Amino acid sequence: MKTATSAPFPAARFRRSKQSPLTRALVRENTLTTNDLIWPVFVRDGENIEEPVESMPGVKRRSVDRVVEAAKEAADLGIPVICLFPYTDAVLKTADCAEAWNPNNLSNRATRAIKKAVPNIAVMTDVALDPYNINGHDGFVIDGEIVNDATVAALVKQTLSQAEAGSDIIGPSDMMDNRIAAMRSALESHSHQNVMIMSYSAKYSSAFYGPFRDAVGASGALKGDKSTYQMDPANTDEALRLVARDLSEGADMVMVKPGMPYLDVCRRVKDQFGVPTFAYQVSGEYAMLQAASLNGWLDHDRVMMESLMAFKRAGCDGILTYFAIEAARKLAET
Ligand code: PBG
User: Which fold has domain 31-333?
Assistant: First the structure.
């Protein structure tokens, strides 16, 4: 899009259209609505439990019954999607990650409970082996190598178990090659043709995931980093190639992750492909804003809303954010 050249002063006075809330609203280019929000929540076992995640003030791990209540609240506020991340008991973590496709694992139990009790919210589930892996990696580790093809076969089993439980959107966060194609064909051949895939296409190897790994109990287990499968923070052309690849394999929506430090990637993806594009405002971004707000250094509500608007400006159709509930409440006020 070409930018019009402005008339010289005083014909052009940019302050004319800024003079009141009404005129500012009239010329506003982007809007954030509750429809744009996807709420990631952490699920743990037990009953009637909500425990705080220390490195993410305000975020809790909830037992399944409490997750159902949270999903109700989100649905009542108009949040369209809740995204489940299990905190798996250490005794269930193994090298073969079999808990990942157990029909009765935490994620699948929470999905079934939400689908039964809360019809008006979509459930998104995470596909990757790290919550179930004894070594904290997203794929199988054999002789020190994170193996691709055997991992993809396991991810397909995990995908099918989530679809059976009623997941509406599969979110593969693993970054293995060929996973989208494998999942899509398995979903098609098992009568799950309406299950959507939101691919974590441009997922960077980022230090901003630290608090999340605490939240799902994976930080202690993880040896080394994830840079043999997640992206190098120095790259953007590669992000476009990954998005093109995932779309050609059958992804319905794509994601850039983390969010705020990668807004340039969001913009390039949206401009180049014009497909539903999402960003994940990750745990470390949330932790930074919360820490500064709790210290009184930033205005919580204003930085929350400004940070979310930044994603809309960068071309995103929606945002996965731990602020979803608070932002939705704020949007309902105005
Ligand atoms: C792992 C996964 C991660 C996140 C979502 N899924 C962390 C990682 O790759 O180690 C990060 C989310 C966040 O930081 O909020 N499959």
Answer: TIM Barrel (3.20.20)
